[in-house]
From TrEMBL:
<dbReference type="GO" id="GO:0005524">
    <property type="term" value="F:ATP binding"/>
</dbReference>
<dbReference type="InterPro" id="IPR003724">
    <property type="entry name" value="CblAdoTrfase_CobA"/>
</dbReference>
<dbReference type="Pfam" id="PF02572">
    <property type="entry name" value="CobA_CobO_BtuR"/>
</dbReference>
<protein>
    <submittedName>
        <fullName>Cob(I)yrinic acid a,c-diamide adenosyltransferase</fullName>
        <ecNumber>2.5.1.17</ecNumber>
    </submittedName>
</protein>
<dbReference type="GO" id="GO:0008817">
    <property type="term" value="F:corrinoid adenosyltransferase activity"/>
</dbReference>
<dbReference type="GO" id="GO:0009236">
    <property type="term" value="P:cobalamin biosynthetic process"/>
</dbReference>
<dbReference type="InterPro" id="IPR027417">
    <property type="entry name" value="P-loop_NTPase"/>
</dbReference>
<keyword id="KW-0808">Transferase</keyword>
């Protein structure tokens, strides 16, 4: 039985999700079963979500409305209710991975959800400690907590040097989504 590692892709640069999805495609090419959880993103059509579904990955979403509010600077709502929703969702993920036996779990933007306090640090640390030993786990998003960095086997910081958004170039299908 293989030992599943914990990987973290963090930093302010573009490419964290792309790196994680690249890992998923590589793993599927080797016959791995993949589950991708998009935190703070919705089911809008994007290239990576479409290809993952076509290749047979399980893809689920949580908190699109909160992600949109964070981007626009609007209040997200009652933090206690959001924390309960997030905790319930994390428990749902635990149940799925116990029952369906995935080889790779990607938790996209989980670091952002942690940073904004939607999920308690202890809940994620417990999740990492209790994950099936063979499950490879990738956590993405800016502002990874030091405690998660310490638990991880691989940490990559993606650093922005220059980005087209700063030149008022809008996101492009096939490149940014």
């Amino acid at each position: 039985m293989k030992k599943g590692l914990i990987q973290v892709y963090t930093g302010n640069g573009k490419g964290k999700t792309t790196a994680a999805i690249g890992q998923a495609i590589r793993a599927m090419g080797r016959g791995w079963r993949i589950m991708v959880v998009f935190w703070l993103k919705g089911e809008r059509t994007s290239g990576e979500m479409e290809i993952l579904k076509k290749l047979g990955a399980k893809v689920i979403f949580w908190g699109e409305e909160y992600g949109k509010k964070l981007i626009t600077g609007k209040p997200v709502g009652n933090k206690d209710n959001i924390k309960k929703e997030a905790k319930d969702f994390l428990n749902k993920i635990k149940g799925i991975i116990e029952k369906e036996r995935y080889d790779l779990l990607i938790m996209d933007e989980i670091n952002v959800a942690l940073h904004y306090g939607f999920i308690e640090e202890k809940e994620i640390l417990d999740f990492l400690k209790e994950k099936p030993s063979s499950l490879e786990l990738i956590l993405t998003g800016r502002k990874a907590l030091q405690s998660i960095i310490c638990m991880a086997d691989l940490v990559t910081e993606v650093k922005k040097i220059k980005h087209p958004y700063n030149s008022k170039i809008k996101a492009r299908g096939g490149i940014e989504y």
